TrEMBL record:
<dbReference type="Pfam" id="PF17289">
    <property type="entry name" value="Terminase_6C"/>
</dbReference>
<keyword id="KW-1188">Viral release from host cell</keyword>
<dbReference type="Pfam" id="PF03237">
    <property type="entry name" value="Terminase_6N"/>
</dbReference>
<protein>
    <recommendedName>
        <fullName>Terminase large subunit gp17-like C-terminal domain-containing protein</fullName>
    </recommendedName>
</protein>
<dbReference type="InterPro" id="IPR035421">
    <property type="entry name" value="Terminase_6C"/>
</dbReference>
<dbReference type="InterPro" id="IPR027417">
    <property type="entry name" value="P-loop_NTPase"/>
</dbReference>
<feature type="domain" description="Terminase large subunit gp17-like C-terminal">
    <location>
        <begin position="261"/>
        <end position="406"/>
    </location>
</feature>
Length: 421
């Protein structure tokens, strides 16, 4: 095997034509885990983190099958995913094809056709009944753990794998602790490959991995989404009681920044107005007070915000404005708020907004300060992950906490955009 220096010297010696040919030689560039295993296997299951090279591995394997004029199947969570990721994506079938074997996508016929006559038919896991009838030599199934009915759909797909002497299936997915995946892993004839995101860092932007590790490193989410591990959990709650119980500590003498976050009620004298005060010091978050008020008037909650600004020396107010940002700003101004007011809008669901903040707790980067526990706030935090809202009642306190810590520790603003990865 060549040393890295010798390998680079050899690459530098190639002509342009030689390099173009080598560029499409997958066996040269692939990591061993990205190459189909040897031996008599029926299913190749590739478990990997985000950006670990799963799509490229699946596309290259299916392209090799197409070179033998096979009849193939492509199936993803939706038809949109099949087209945008598996076919036309940067690591999809069209991008990795050699010039003389570049396939043509025929969306009206739901198929991909190669110059040699090989055909791959496209299917959505949302419509498993469409798999009745067709038959194939081989199939590539992507993001299996994101399928609506993974076990049932996989069974339908396998019933169509009946052409040739040795039909084979490649499954690429970021793992989740679902029964269908565990059952698949335990089957006879399944070869399991694993790859963490970091193993493919040469193919990723410099900031991608470091940025995610800074936010999610050491958490269950990182183990699943970056390391490709199957992470079991007792329930779907974002916060666990033990994580919150160990986060209490002393308040530092001063802060880099202090914010008062507000989740205004939808109507006058309706739900509570969530108000949480938090500070940042040396990259760590401190929850200072849960100042939520129950069924306040508009001026009532605004006066409470102004009082918290003065009490804690806050440098800004972060207020959700989904019910009318300018109205919220006007009410705060009327109450005499004399610090910067940042109006934020919820563009994703409550759980998606809360995930990065829950990761901060799991990393041990948040401290709750005070003589007693914030019991009502903590109850809402632990309920938030069980369904979108956690209960019929709006989690106003937890919402305010999420806005505050997101603004202080994650984005500098209150919208956790990294939750969209």
């Amino acid at each position: 095997m060549l040393t890295p220096q010798a390998r680079q010297a050899w690459l530098d010696s190639l002509t342009i034509e030689q390099f173009k040919h080598l560029h499409k030689t997958w066996a040269f560039w692939a990591r061993p885990v990205q190459l189909a295993p040897e031996g008599d296997w029926k299913t190749w299951l590739f478990l990997g983190g985000r950006g670990a090279g799963k799509t490229r591995a699946g596309a290259e394997w299916l392209s090799a099958c197409a070179s033998r004029r096979a009849r193939l199947a492509l199936i993803g969570p939706t038809l949109h995913d099949v087209r945008e990721v598996m076919i036309e994506g940067p690591s999809g079938l069209m991008a990795i094809a050699a010039d003389d074997m570049r396939p043509v996508f025929e969306p009206s016929r739901r198929r991909v056709k190669w110059p040699n006559g090989a055909i791959a038919y496209t299917f959505s896991a949302e419509e498993p009944e469409r798999l009745r009838g067709p038959q194939f030599h081989h199939a590539w199934a992507d993001e299996f753990c994101a399928w609506r009915q993974p076990a049932e759909t996989l069974a339908m797909l396998r019933m169509g794998l009946r052409l040739g002497d040795a039909p084979r299936l490649c499954v690429t997915t970021t793992p989740k602790p679902i029964r269908a995946l565990k059952t698949l892993m335990a089957e006879v004839g399944v070869e399991v490959a694993r790859s963490a995101t970091a193993e493919n860092k040469a193919g990723l932007s410099e900031d991608f991995l470091s940025g995610l590790l800074a936010i999610y490193g050491g958490t269950r989410l990182a183990a699943q989404e970056l390391e490709g591990a199957i992470v079991d959990s007792d329930d779907h709650a974002l916060w666990r009681a033990e994580d919150i119980a160990r986060c209490y500590g002393a308040q530092p003498p001063q802060f880099d920044s202090v914010v008062v976050a507000v989740d205004p009620p939808v109507s006058d004298h309706g739900d509570a107005c969530g108000i949480v005060v938090a500070g940042r010091r040396d990259g760590r978050g401190y929850v200072l007070q849960d100042a939520t008020v129950e069924k306040p008037s508009p001026l009532g909650w605004a006066n409470q915000v102004v009082e918290m600004v003065a009490k804690h020396g806050a440098d800004r107010v972060v207020a959700e404005g989904n019910q009318g940002g300018e109205m919220v700003r006007s009410i705060l101004a009327t109450a005499g708020c004399d610090v910067a007011i940042e109006i934020v809008h919820a563009r994703v669901g409550k759980r998606a907004r809360a995930e990065p903040v829950a990761a901060l707790y799991e990393q041990g980067r948040v401290t709750h300060c005070g003589a007693g526990r914030f019991l009502k706030l903590e109850e809402e935090m632990m309920a938030l992950g069980r369904g979108e809202g956690g209960s019929a009642r709006s989690p106003d306190r937890a919402d305010a906490l999420v806005w505050a810590l997101t603004a202080l520790l994650i984005t500098g603003r209150a919208e956790p955009r990294l939750s969209r990865l």
